[in-house]
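wait is this the right file?? whatever heres the structure
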């Protein structure tokens, strides 16, 4: 049975553009997860509620949907304040020819969701994404004799227990998911740490949107020489460019060789950034600008 068209998650008014980038109504946006996922909420914040979500089972599928023109854009998480970097998506950024066009951050607030009328003493199973289960350990420890089950998606776990009529089960997901699937929020704010935020990146085919904004992301590789990373990073320090994030990832097929991902708080079009990247190219055999973009 087809799902009813939901109201926009996260309080974004239906039919109104969000506070981020304006896109035409019906723009297809690839997301890992179901309606009501945190990626869905991030997409509505970036592009408004008139988008058409393209639900994907994995991050690979979300990137591939844009590459294969099954979607116009993609929105993927890149970092969480508790769980850290999402390494899979860093690797996919280097592998695919997509460009970062915007960023937003969401406060992640988890709820315990059940069928209407179910009480907490009836719960014998809890379903959610592994990261969500890990972020709600205090509550789960208080629920005795409750089996923990992993799902590929928080919102998908709500739909799973709903579709199967599992009145002895609960899901951990957002309030949006409870509303969309006609379920009941039993407990709100069940995460262990309230300082739980996730950064999301919006991706598009290269040159679809003009580059520029308060952040620029790059990835580069270096020869294995003494002091080479210090010299590479100094091209930004010498020009007083703020480096807000650095991540290293191994290169497949080249043991002990790495790619370095940097987020810079500067517009790629600025004089300082242009000269810094020109200097870095003299040191780095491989350099790719992943995007220069606004933050919402």
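ok assuming it is, sequence goes like this
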């Amino acid at each position: 049975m087809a799902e009813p068209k939901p109201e926009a998650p996260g309080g974004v008014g239906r039919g109104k553009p969000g506070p981020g980038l304006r896109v035409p109504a019906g723009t297809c946006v690839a997301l890992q997860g179901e309606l009501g996922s945190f990626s869905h909420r991030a997409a509505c914040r970036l592009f408004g509620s008139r988008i058409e979500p393209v639900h994907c089972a994995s991050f690979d599928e979300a990137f591939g949907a844009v590459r294969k023109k099954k979607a116009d854009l993609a929105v993927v998480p890149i970092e969480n304040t508790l769980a850290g970097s999402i390494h899979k998506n860093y690797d996919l950024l280097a592998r695919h020819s997509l460009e970062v066009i915007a960023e937003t951050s969401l406060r992640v607030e988890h709820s315990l969701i059940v069928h209407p009328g179910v009480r907490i003493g009836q719960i014998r199973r809890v379903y959610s994404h592994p990261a969500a289960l890990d972020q709600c350990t205090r509550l789960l420890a208080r629920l005795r004799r409750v089996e923990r089950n992993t799902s590929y998606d928080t919102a998908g776990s709500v739909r799973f227990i709903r579709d199967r009529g599992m009145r002895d089960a609960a899901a951990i997901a957002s309030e949006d998911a409870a509303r969309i699937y006609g379920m009941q929020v039993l407990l709100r704010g069940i995460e262990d740490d309230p300082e739980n935020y996730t950064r999301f990146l919006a991706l598009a085919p290269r040159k679809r949107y003009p580059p520029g904004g308060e952040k620029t992301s790059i990835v580069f590789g270096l020869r294995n020489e003494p002091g080479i990373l210090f010299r590479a990073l100094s091209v930004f320090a010498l020009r007083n460019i703020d480096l807000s994030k650095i991540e290293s990832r191994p290169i497949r097929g080249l043991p002990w060789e790495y790619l370095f991902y940097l987020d810079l708080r500067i517009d790629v079009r600025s004089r300082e950034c242009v000269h810094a990247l020109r200097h870095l190219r003299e040191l780095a055999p491989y350099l790719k600008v992943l995007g220069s973009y606004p933050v919402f």
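Residues 9-107+196-205 form a domain with the D-Maltodextrin-Binding Protein; domain 2 fold (CATH 3.40.190.10). so i think its the right one actually
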